[in-house]
Here is the input.
Amino acid sequence: MKRIGYVCLAMLAFALLAGTAMAQNVGDNSVYFVTYFSNANTAGAPDAVVRIINDGDASTSETEGQANGNLWASFYVFDDSEEMQQCCNCKITADGLLSESIDKQLAYPPNDLTGRGEQTRGVIKVIGSASYDPTNNVPTPGLRGWATHIQATTNVIGGATGDTPTGKGPWFVTETLLADANLNKYEQQALQDSCSFIYTLGSGYGVCTCSPEDHDF
Here is the structure.
């Protein structure tokens, strides 16, 4: 009976150690993320920011000082009419931080592909990639991201039903994780093709810009 008890205890200890090891090695291997932006380029509203870090998952055994574990965040920015307005690729080295302004970079009105300059709300999609080319991604895990969102209440003068809103405010800033999403081959191809159109036929419009790495605001 004692021998059986010892065996059971040994098996339990092994299971606990194995479970701990497995828990330590379990991570999120997402390569595709989505979020939204609202109240962008709006008078009186603060700017929103998308922040992405490279967690080092793509690092190798290369020596210090060598290019090692670099990833790119491929951004695809849509307006509220579901039209891609801007796209670009931003490099993030291992353990690096990328901060992208909505108003000045990802949804910068003078850079709109259509030239309407009315990007106040829309959708941002991000592919974590080992390729510097947003028109030919190599989806690779290792990026983690957050986005701030600008929320507002609507002020109505008079308070009676049917009064016309005269403005927005006060402004509130919230922050959420970029939502993990499923990237199938058709979605990936559609994003790449639309971005390729921007790069090829946009005459310089529609290509968003990247902040220097580790330059936050």
